[in-house]
Amino acid sequence: MAEHDVIQGWTQPSAARGTMEAVVRMDEGSLQTQEARPHTRVGWLRATAPLWPLGLARILYGLLWWQQSKWKVPSDDFGRKSGGGLWYWVQQEIQYPTLSAYKDFLVNVMIPHWTFFGWMTLITETFIAVILILGLFTRLGSLVAIGMAANITLGILSVPHEWGWTYTMLIMLPAIFLLTGAGRSFGVDAFLAPPLERAAATGNPLARLVSWLL
Question: pTM of the predicted model, to two decimals?
Answer without folding.
Answer: 0.78
